[in-house]
Amino acid sequence: AAERMPRDLEGCLVGLGSLLDALGDEPLAAVLARIRPSPALAAACLRGEGRLGQMLDMVRAYEHGEWAVVRENSAELGIGGATLGPLYLESLAWSRGLVQRAGTAKATAGW
Questions:
Q1: What predicted TM-score, i.e. pTM, was given to this entire model?
Q2: Distance separating alpha carbons of residues 101 and 103, to the nearest angstrom
Q3: Tell me: the pLDDT tens digits for 3-51?
Q4: Quick one: which of 90, 57, 52 has its CA closest to 71?
Q5: What single DSSP character describes residue 8?
Q6: pLDDT for 40-92, tens place per residue?
Q7: What is the spatial distance between Cα 75 and Cα 69, in angstroms, rounded to a whole number?
Q8: Fewest beta carbons less than 10 Å away: which of 60, 75, 78, 86?
């Protein structure tokens, strides 16, 4: 399961995109302006707008144990409570594999 992209590519991208400023010394708006994501993805990352913004809010709430926010957003998004946990774990496994592969690539390249 860790080898394939999570089921919702846009959801994955908004999660990654929302953290791009943590990788460098630039504000998120500047990083997104350079990579030019879709307007929906940029609005979600920068302002928490739209369905993708709501998904991002739900995941952040899940990570912080804010269960009332998780229940509200998952109901509005049509994601059943029994589905959310396995999806979250699947995304963690995928991202862990991605980080491990990146570390292996760095070591192989001599970074």
A1: 0.73
A2: 5
A3: 444 456 777 778 777 777 777 778 888 888 888 888 988 899 899 999 9
A4: 57
A5: -
A6: 888 998 999 999 999 889 988 998 999 999 999 999 988 887 888 888 888 88
A7: 10
A8: 78
Would you state the structure tokens that stand for residue 94, as one six-digit string? 């995928």
Show Cβ contacts of residue 58 under 8 Å, excluding neighbours closer than 6 positions: 69, 70, 73, 74, 77, 79, 84
DSSP 23: G
Distance in angstroms (rounded) separating the CA atoms of residues 76 and 73: 5
The answer to whether 12 touches 36, Cβ cutoff 8 Å, is no
Instruction: Report pLDDT for 6.
Output: 46
CB 60 within 8 A of CB 19: no
pLDDT for the residue numbered 3: 44
| Measured CA distances, 73 to 11, 25, 80, 104 (Å) | 14, 32, 10, 37
Two structure tokens written together for 110: 């001599």
